[in-house]
Write a structure and sequence with these properties.
Length: 377
């Protein structure tokens, strides 16, 4: 069975020859520091390429080394946009959001947001990026067609950036937008749907180029934290869900690809909502968060969802455990989530900078060794 057939089989809730493996997406990848250590361990030389704030473009020989079944295609930056790194190690992206990476940090944080006031006038005066910019889709069709016709990998379309909720609070700041959702709902709703308009226009152009070639379309919108949701289910359903639904159903109506949804944290209470809006795949399956036990998720939602992730806890085991701890974790997750299909192996979210390379190696070796169907109990 080839990689594309393997992925499609589990997405249709069948059992292929082995559990499919993913690595390299915006939320299923590896950070640059961990990747460079892994390359040393594997004896692999060459320049490390990144996309979007230190996420790694994993080299083909390493994807092959770990039997990765997916390949990603990504949207391009706007024409003429080149981020300028300032002396304080900050830059402004094409949304007008300033990002900064302090010397003591591994991560880029948002430190300034362009929409300062929660008014309709501020929303009207904001200079939106152009969703019709042809530079955003340059080369996508050629790349997608080449992967489809000349390889056997499953192709994932990764339209970089946040979803309607995430982009709304990126533009306003998280605390400000959470207040907007309660105190200024007319503005919050207008902003959410304006973001949805932009995303629908962008996806329209993207899917015109690649819709016939891809197997998975990836969207992202974090709603959960460690112990619950960022907002109440009622507030989600009133304001955020309608805007998400517009975008997601547009994608589902324009392509046969399966809809991949990334949302961190404890989101179990909203999973029926996601399924009802056409989500086929849930990522990252944060198994250490409240109410996200993989056995329970599989039992309750396994007929409707594919779980793409959850293969190894990155908060504790992958970063602080021994290689033997990692092996036991991976075997446990395969046993819980792989039977009956509906499971693509990936660690929980991106592999963080401090993760020992020996743990990464053992993680993939274990899923290769123990991921064959029928799953050994």
């Amino acid at each position: 069975m080839n990689p594309r057939e393997r992925i499609l089989t589990v997405l249709k809730h069948g059992e292929p020859d082995r559990v499919p493996i993913d690595l390299g997406g915006t939320s299923t990848g590896i950070e640059v520091e961990a990747y460079n250590k892994l390359k040393i361990l594997l004896g692999f030389e060459g320049e490390t390429k990144t996309f979007v704030r230190d996420h790694v473009e994993v080299d083909e020989p390493i994807l092959e080394r770990f039997n990765v079944d997916t390949r990603y295609i990504r949207i391009k930056p706007p024409g003429g946009f080149k981020p300028k790194i300032e002396k304080d190690n900050s830059y402004v992206d094409f949304w007008g959001i300033r990002w900064k990476k302090p010397p003591s940090s591994h991560y880029w944080d948002m430190v300034d947001h362009p929409i300062k006031e929660p008014t309709i006038d501020a929303l009207k005066s904001y200079q939106w990026p152009d969703p019709d910019d042809p530079a955003r889709i340059q080369g996508l069709r050629v790349r997608a067609k080449e992967l489809y016709e000349k390889t056997e990998y499953a192709i994932v379309m990764d339209v970089l950036g946040s979803g309607v909720f995430g982009q709304a609070w990126n533009l306003r700041g998280l605390e400000n937008f959470l207040l907007d959702l309660v105190l200024n709902q007319e503005f919050a709703e207008a902003l959410l749907h304006r973001v949805a308009d932009y995303q629908i226009s962008l996806w329209d152009h993207v899917l015109d180029e690649v819709g016939e070639y891809i197997q998975v379309a990836s969207v992202s919108d974090d709603l959960g934290i460690q112990n619950g949701l960022m907002i109440s289910p009622e507030l989600y359903r009133k304001l955020i869900k309608p805007a998400q639904k517009r975008v997601w159903q547009f994608i589902k109506n324009k392509t046969k690809a399966f809809l991949f949804y990334h949302t961190c944290g404890s989101v179990r209470k909203l999973i029926p909502d996601f399924i009802g809006m056409g989500v086929d795949i849930l990522n990252p399956v944060q198994v250490s968060a409240k109410d996200m036990d993989p056995k329970e998720l599989k039992s309750e939602f396994g007929k409707d969802l594919t779980f793409w992730g959850g293969g190894c806890d990155t908060q504790r085991v992958l970063i602080f455990g021994t290689p033997d701890d990692v092996e036991e974790e991976v075997k446990k997750r395969i046993l819980a989530m792989a039977p009956g299909g509906g499971f693509v192996f990936n660690q929980v979210h991106n592999i963080q900078p401090q993760v020992p390379p020996e743990n990464i190696l053992r993680m993939f070796e274990t899923v290769i060794e123990f991921g064959a169907y029928p799953i050994r109990t």
